[in-house]
Hints:
Layout: E1 4-8, E2 15-16, H1 20-34, H2 47-61, H3 66-79, H4 95-122, E3 125-126, H5 128-138, E4 142-150, H6 151-160, E5 168-174, H7 182-190, E6 196-201, H8 204-213, E7 216-219, H9 224-232, H10 248-266, H11 273-281
Parallel strand pairs: 1-4, 1-6, 4-5, 6-7
Antiparallel strand pairs: 2-3
Amino acid sequence: MKDRAIAFDFDGTLVHSGYDKGVHIMYATYLACATSGFRRFLHPRDPSQDVERLLRGLLQYAGAPRVQQLAALVNSLIHDRPVAVETPAGLGLEPELAAEYENVRGAYDAVYTALNEAAAAKYWKAYPAARETIPRLAADFDLYIASGVPQDLLEADLVRHGYDRRIFQEIWGANRQGGADKTEILRRIAARGYEDVLFVGDANRDLEYARAAGVKFFRVETPDDFLRLAALVRDGFPDLAESWTWTQADKEFFRTKTRRLVDALLAGRPLSPTEATDAIHA
Length: 282
């Protein structure tokens, strides 16, 4: 065991997935609601209203486990309150709708996974700078993965993108029932007795997880950040203290790309996962 440890988020940090996942989250939530009794909360004659509410939920929960993301976006659709609830009862629904939430969650999980798989097969790539830097960091630090991706998918994605799992002490993701968020994982790592722990992520939510776990944080925005990280850690772990804001361009990307997929659905021509990912990248 080395004196210090570095934990990495996965999607958006070690793999360049852009903002695709944000659109996937919004559209998968909309589709899961549209194909269930939750359709009563949608406004097919004015889908812009639903897209805005979905966007508010996404911006609060980007980087969170998918179960929390769905809960926040559904809550935003129903009550314009983008806050994740732990159980369907927290949505304030009548019993039959609360029971149907499990079907919504199942549909969301299937659609979201299919979209991610299609995008990963064609567009998502591991950062070359990350694949070059991480083995060098492993010589001096214990390395971990701390991700919100479900454990089974995370294991498969590591293989898909060519990362050697032997470099990492542990690879920890979320479970599909919503447990094991990144705060819990980071606390588990810190409890091993390291002198210092650094979490490397790409979202404001990752910064919040680091703060809650009492570890330091470094943000990845571009591939060059891995080279900067490798230089910085020689003199001690860096620590980003301030959160950042979404730009108007970011919001417009989520808004317009999601609206395109929703419009196709409402027109009776829903896009396949491959067609949807192509539309996002068009």
